[in-house]
Amino acid sequence: MNRRGGLALAFLLLCRSAAGAGGFPREVLSSAGRVVSSPARISKADLPAIGAVAAGGLALYSLDGQLRRAFLRNRSRLNDDISKNAEKLGNGGYDAAIVAAYGGLGLLLKDARMQDTSLLAAESFLAANAAGTLLKYSVGRARPYAEDGKRRFTPFRFKTARTSFPSGHTVSAFSLASVFAARSESRAVKTLAYSLASCVALQRVYADKHWSSDVLAGAAIGTAVGRWVAKKGLNGPASAMLLPVYSAGYSGAAAVFSF
After folding, report:
1. Contact criterion met (CB below 8 Å) for 116 and 20
2. Largest Cα–Cα distance in the chain?
3. Which CATH number fits domain 3-13+46-258: 1.10.4100, 3.30.70, 1.20.144, 1.20.120?
4. Which of 57, 60, 161, 216 is most buried, by CB atoms within 10 Å?
5. What does the alpha-carbon distance between residue 163 and residue 228 come to, in Å, rounded to a whole number?
6. Which of 200, 191, 184, 202 lies closest to 91, judged by CA?
7. Do the beta carbons of residue 122 and residue 221 sit within 8 Å?
8. Number of alpha carbons in the 13 Å side-chain half-sphere of residue 188
9. 132 vs 126: CA distance, rounded Å
10. Residues 94-143: pLDDT tens digits?
C-alpha cells in the first residue's frame, strides 16, 4: 500500500472511530485470526465445499504452464496499456483511496450505510491481505518470471520472486468487490464489482507476475473474507475457513465460506 492511500484510509478510520467505531482494529485482528485459524473449526458439512475448491485449484494448477504461454503469445501494445490500468484496481494504495473516498462521501451525505460499507470494506481488505501475506511467505512459490517452473516452492525465503501464491492484487480486489456486491441490491453493481476484480486477476497472469492458480486462490480468499465480513456486519458471528492443500509437487490453500 502506498503512503497516499494509507493516509487516506487512516483518515477514514479515524473519522469513523470518532463516530463511535473505536473497536475497528480489534475487528480486523479478529477477522484475520479467525480466517487463519479456521482449519480447527472444520465440520463434515464443510467437506463437499472444501473438496470442490481443492479440485478446482488442482485442475487449474495442472494448466498453469499452458495458460502462461497463451497469455505471453497475446502480448500487444494495446493489451499492455489496458494491463497497466487494470493493475491499479488491485494496488493497495488505490484500493485504500477508493474505500476512503466512499466513506468520506458517506460522511458528507450522512449516509450511515455507506459509512458502514466503507468500514466493512476496509476490514475485509486488511484481514484478507493479512491472511494472504502469511500464505505468501509460508508457501514460497516461485513467480513465473523467475523461470524456475510452477513446482518451485521455497518457504520463508522472504524474496519477491518467491511470493507468487496467492496473488495479493487479486486478494485485494476481490476482498473489496465482495463487500460492495454483498451490500448492494443492484445486480449491475454486483456484476461491475466482480468484473473489475476479475480484470485484476487476468492482468496478473498477463503481466507474468502470477500463475493462474495463484489468482484463483487470491480470488477465493478475497471473496471468502469479504462475504464473511459483510454477513457478520460490524459485530456478529460468521463462518469462514482457510485450509492448507498439499499434494505431490503442490502446496497451497483453499478458502471456504459458509453463507
Report:
1. no
2. 55
3. 1.20.144
4. 216
5. 25
6. 200
7. no
8. 0
9. 10
10. 898 888 889 889 889 999 999 899 989 988 998 899 889 999 999 999 99
